[in-house]
## 1
Amino acid sequence: MNAILTFLKNFEDPDLKPIRSAKIARQKFIEKTPEIPLITIEYKGATVIPRPEHNVSRQQVSENALKVVYKLKKEGFDAYLVGGCVRDLLLGREPKDFDVVTNALPEQLARLFSNCRIIGKRFRLAHIIYGRDIIEVATFRKSGSENPSAAQRSTKEGRILQDNLYGTIDDDVWRRDFTINALYYNIRDFSIVDYVGGMADHKAGLIRLIGDAGERFREDPVRMIRAVRFAVKLGFKLHHDCEQAIHLNAHLLASIPAARLHDEVVKLFLTGYGVQTFEMLRHYGLFEVLFPAVEKSLSVEEGDFPRMMVINALQDCDNRVAENKLSPPYFLFAALLYEPMLQRAKDKIGKGILESDAYFLAASEILTQQVGHIALPRHVTLAIREIWNQQAKFDFRVGAKPSKLLAHPRFRAAYDFLVLRAQVGAIPMELAEWWATYQSVNETERRKMTQPQQQPKSAQPKKKRVYRKKAKPATVLNSEGV
Ligand code: ATP
Ligand code: MG
């Protein structure tokens, strides 16, 4: 009876509807929260740029981001847009996402927004979810150097592990990475609050760390690849101190958990500026930390072949982004790691290992090594393997094999990879062209094309092939699932 009464009571409470475990967890989380007095905001030492003196307009802000900041304002909290969106709007670009910062605590946000999910351990954040659009809302935080507490933990090298010490906007600004990322757009009067000379650096096109560059990179080495990403994306220059500090601290990137690097690397290479980013990461010694096997293969003197393969793959990804098409990470990783895999397989064949086993083992080893640096989901490593495996099958142009290959769900990616190899001269262009024609013609023409007499001599598969038919090696997956 009691259970029924509780159920009915809960049912009347709009905050508890529908009764699902996530909702209940959220409710429990809210109940534990103490009420805190609202903080009055003063800007210690900041310059306030009034609306008429800057070009950021509310019209350019997404509807959902506006909903969030207005609701916070209505409830008596302070709310600012901050980070990349302000930076990009000042440049007249469309922001990738909108980040909001406020004096409301995550628990208060959970209470205010029924579509709120609290995420993150290192940083606790609120995601306000509008279908596929997510507005990230952070609570002002302070850097913990003067206030070490349980809410903030770091390694002995100074890398921050947990940072949940809340503060005011005056505190919050100092823990942001670059001056151009620390401009706050105030929804109350549409002014921009600048504590760190961000507007001047923005005008000068400079990426400058807030505070001591070396210290800030040691706190979080991911900032080094963010510096490169923003420099390329915005066409800005790295400040001298920032450049020097990257040269000195690049190796620290190796300490970042592989899972965190996955997202960062996707942003580095798959958001439209891959080629330039690759060149700049190599220049600063960051690429070799992220992709040691690739860097090693690039340094092998074999003309410009391995490098061109990577550059062309990145260019492909950049072109796709420019055409508003998706660029799947597996294609890029397959291209990056192909040469290291081939080199490793060659070594194994040299040691007398059977060709097919050598390629299988080389693929496993290279992928396992790489996921130790940058985590890749299992479906991605499987796709990479499939693309690699199918390359040898393109040599077979007689009989039923071509139609079987064409029907493979991964055919399109494997074919694009074949074209990539042809472009850098790794295989004859004629082979890629044959497959282009084969795809474009009707069934009767396809049958004609795969008659033995139709095949040019060069199209006959060589006697000894890498993946010739043999007992399939057992699909043994290692602990990383590759
Ligand atoms: P974009 O979203 O265009 O990639 P962004 O600058 O908005 O760029 P986000 O990752 O969305 O990048 O982060 C939002 C803001 O949070 C940044 O602008 C910066 O102020 C702060 N920030 C993010 N990552 C870090 C970091 N590693 N160290 C310090 N501040 C950070
Ligand atoms: Mg952002």
Note: Residues 352 and 358 are 9 Å apart (CA to CA).
## 2
Amino acid sequence: MNEYCRWASKELVPTKDPGQPEFHQAVEEVLESVAPVLDAHSEYRQARILERLVEPERVIMFRVPWVDDRGEIQVNRGFRVQMNSAIGPYKGGLRLHPSVNLSIIKFLAFEQVFKNALTTLPMGGAKGGSDFNPKGKSDNEVMRFCQSFMTELYRHIGPDTDVPAGDIGVGGREIGYLWGQYKRLRNEFTGALTGKGTAWGGSLIRPEATGYGVVYIATEYLATKGESLEGKTCLVSGSGNVAQYTVEKLLDLGAKPVTLSDSSGYIYDESGITREKLAFVMRLKNVMRGRISEYVSKYPEAVYQEADPTLGYNPLWSHPADCAFPSATQNEINDRDAAHMLREGVHLVAEGANMPTTPGAIENLADGGAVIIPAKAANAGGVAVSGLEMSQNSMRIAWTREEVDARLQGIMKEIFTTITVAAERYGLENDLIAGANIAGFLKVANAMMDQGVV
Ligand code: NDP
């Protein structure tokens, strides 16, 4: 890393934003990659592009009071970080999870800027959410929370300003409640949120898009080695939206997924998670809102292991496999997990979750010859189809499933080419993390240069 990038990531950001480790980690990863670009182009430095990129255009934090089913008042904190709008209206998901804080939302918003730039669609980057925990809440409680959250957020969003979507803890149910309240407050039927139901403006394939996209881009990479997913054993973490549709597409392409998890533990099904078993998981998670441990009651050939934070590694990553698809949360693969993966034969990690691999794990995997397709590229299919939902809303039409899926495949193919070419241009073949960071950075930085000091 050059002096300028080192200063920005090790001094400027930590001094200005103390206590935001996830944000520091995300910034450092990008700045490390773009150092050769800044060496070659002093104009970005003169225009203070880095200093501007790490400073959100706007941070909104607000109180979210709501009344639970016992009549007691609860108070949560809401966030929306509008990071960068150089190439389009702000776009990025909303996360509802007790771990949510400003550092996590800023890291996600920062990542989103570069990810959205890679999609080929005109979208700036933002992220939001709340420390509200949807687990164990009734539908009515979730609705009252969402209505209160939107009662503040609606002032800051809109189809040409900022278009939120789902993320951890925000699926179809939550988007419905949020959008209902937005429509009531604005008295407008517009595409101000994506991930909507198909009867009221949603796009077909949006629920599937992130998981499908991860598998499509993995296929693109494997094709360059003359390989396919057919017959490959795959480790998948999480059991939410991204994990479910990753498994579905892996099965379509003849792979054998063997693991799934939630925050309580994971299941290992050596015989493979079949379509029937996946249908059970979808019902369990999306309708019954149950725990992954229930998989082994239904399918006793599988084993369940409870999460044990004292272990220092996640045994999910210690099973023999060819490919890994982390699809739960940030920093879920550490350096010990990376060593176990290499030992067990994993040579491709396609990141469904955002920043799932720690810096130490990235280093270990790369040293061991494994390739990582970073989240910015690998999980960009979700926001890409959200962009397609915005286009359909603007045109007031609805494309067929086949049309959206074909566009998604085309976008994932183009992203793979873009990041590969960017990596090669700077002599970093096989470093797809650098390729994604460089390509995303160049698009945003050039737009910022064009638009002057704003
Ligand atoms: P969901 O809420 O649908 O599922 C999240 C899954 O991950 C659940 O199984 C959850 O378990 C598990 N999980 C969440 N937090 C933790 C944690 N701290 N430790 C262990 N397990 C955890 O979310 P998504 O599938 O939508 O999101 C998963 C990842 O993909 C996130 O990193 C998200 O940012 C990313 N992503 C999602 C996109 C989308 O379109 N949905 C788009 C791009 C990226 P539990 O239920 O026990 O909490």
Note: Residues 97, 99, 166-169, 171, 210, 238-243, 262-264, 327-329, 352-354, 379, 382 surround NDP (CB under 6 Å).
